[in-house]
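PROTOCOL LOG
Step 1. Enter all chains and additional molecules of the complex.
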Amino acid sequence: MSTTLAPYTLPSGFVLPSIHSGPPFFTQQPSPSSRKIATDNWTRLILSYARHQKLFVLRTEDADIPGGEWDDVLSNPRINRKIRAPHLAAVIAHMVATDQAVYDPPNQTSAVLLYWRTPEEWAQVLYDWASSTGHLNTIMTFYEIVEPPVPSPLSDLPLPILRKAIAVLAKSSRAQVIAVADGEGVRFLTAPPGR
Amino acid sequence: MPLKRYSTSVDGTIPVPALLYEDEVILTSQEGVGIYDGPQKSALHQAGTIHATTHRLFYIDNAHPFSCSFSFDLIHVARTEHYAGLFTSSAKVTLYLNPRPPKSEATGIAEPNTPSPPTASTGSTSNEVACLACTFLNSPLLRECEICGTPLPRKPSMPLPQAPHPPAKSAPASRSVTPAPEDEDSDDENDSVEKRMIRLSFRKGGDKPFYTVLRRSLLGRAWETKAVARPAPSSSKGIGISGILRSVETTAQVSQTNMEDALEDLEALMIKWKDMVKLAQDLNERLTAVSAPAPVPAITFPSVSSPPSSSPSPSPFPAPAARLGTTAPEMAMAMAASRQVVEPEEATFIRSSLAQLGLQMANAPVTQDMVRDERNWFEELAKELAGVLEGSGVGPGAGNGRGKGGEGMMRRRGIVALDEVWGGWNRARGVALIPPSTFLQVLPHLPSFTLPPIRMRTFPASGLSVLHTPPFGRAAFASRLVGLLTLVGPRTTIEVAQEEDLPIGLTQEMLDEVETDGEICRDDGGSGVDMFSESLGGTEGGAGGEVRYWVNIFRGYVWDGQE
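Step 2. Run joint prediction.
Step 3. Record the structure below.
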């Protein structure tokens, strides 16, 4: 077995890192230094894949679901390895601890929303989208934002992330949360002077 | 009456085993037995215990064991009969007797020198010897014919106890000496068969087993072999198997006796040890008391006082002072204490003697002197241990010829567990064993006496300590292992163990340490297929298969995947 590892490109065009074809990557390393590197790389791999595939939710069960949407990164059939649920849970815990994900719903540790963009980044994306599509100063429901008739970067954005992004905008006076008849709405404001 | 004639009175207060002949054995006993003398009950013998031996029957009377007990030779029994009993009649064994009791020296029933002419008239037994000249049937006990004086042919099977007896005198003369049997004999002439019998009546049962044993005893005819067996012990000494057996027996007896003597000595010592210790302590206290008020500046010690510093002795039995192991520090204490004694030489002698006996002297003061001596002592021990480990011929192992031609414990192996070293060293020493505490104190001195230096190493995970040569040091092993893994790819613990020729457990310890250092990483393996391993978590090895060790692929890894 060769120990030289090479990156692998998935049919979807996603490039898996070379470390993904190393069997030890799928084992939780007892040595702290090795484990830290492995966890960091898992985090990076998961986030970049999520960004590539526009995935927002990761569950520990995903490690055990063959053929699931995470299968390409959580397992490597070419070396007959897959990450185990406890190992994945440890990676997820690390991601939550470093603000790269948040448990959703709260008070459990098996499912997370992935912040492959931070709420601040999302806020900027949201504001840019609103201004580019001429929705400033109009009231929009959350539904209109996450399921626009024309696909946008915000399509399918989970509401908790959307809410956080809007909260960021509201803080800088670029948006205003408004209660509407069937739920919540938001009005994007033109940027205040100096911004 | 037959009973009177055939039996011998015995003292029934003596236990039966004490009444037996040398080669006689009790076969069975039965209580609740009454005796019929001929057809009638014998009034004196109606309740007693009957014992059957290989040679005799013993009747021990319950009421009057002294006066009414008797023994009866089985040789007289011609045939036996068993009656099972009916209604109120108890089971009986009938012993039909030979018409005339053959004279036996053992029983002494009849006078040996009594010729018994009347037996001739009965004429019914085969024991009688026909005269060659006149055909008169003579008693087998006679040598010459009673009628014509012709010497009689001897029956070879008949023992003639009265052989040294001079040829029979005239019959009347003999008879006059012992008139009593004559009466009996005259009776005997009229005896019908049923008169010559004795019945044992089993009032409390037990007749059947008794009868079986009795029959066997009668068939065994132990009294016949007796005559042959008796002279054997003196004549057959040292000949044949029995001779060998006897000599073995004698040897065993001698060693048994020696052993018992030795054990007695030991027991005496065990009883006395406390007194000895007390005496020693007392002596030591007195010495200290004498020396205390007279402090004297340091005195240079005679060479005896630094026992371990003497060079390793080539003699098979090293000098006790140098080899006294555990007691040497105490000896050093004794030396230290004796510095201040008024007569230092005597005190030193006493105390070193005490120390050699291994007697504790806890109240001896600890001085700088002792520390110096102890350091010497440890260094000397380290030197000896180095010999044991490297097989260079130093140390008692080589001296005693137990070192097997200089083959040290670590000659073949680069790494040995501490307990094994300790055991091996003490085995090589044989005497004055080293306690573990001393052993551990010696180890730091070891590298300076070994080439290549042998050091101790403790694995943090398990606390296992080993002695190792440089190639098995932490860094050296790690780099060798990384080289191996780079060259041949991932390896399991077992494969590494084979490669390094080490025990698997030890290899695991060393791999764990290298892993902690971040030189290697692991692959549990089989995760893609094994569903059972999920619950075990990833930290423990072997969860999904055998752990394979890889060169650390994480170290210095730079992201080369999707941005």
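Step 4. Note key features.
The interface with chain B takes residues 1-3, 5, 7, 14-20, 22-31, 33-34, 37-38, 41, 44-45, 48-49, 52, 64, 75-77, 80-87, 90 of chain A (CB under 8 Å).
The mean pLDDT of chain A is 85.
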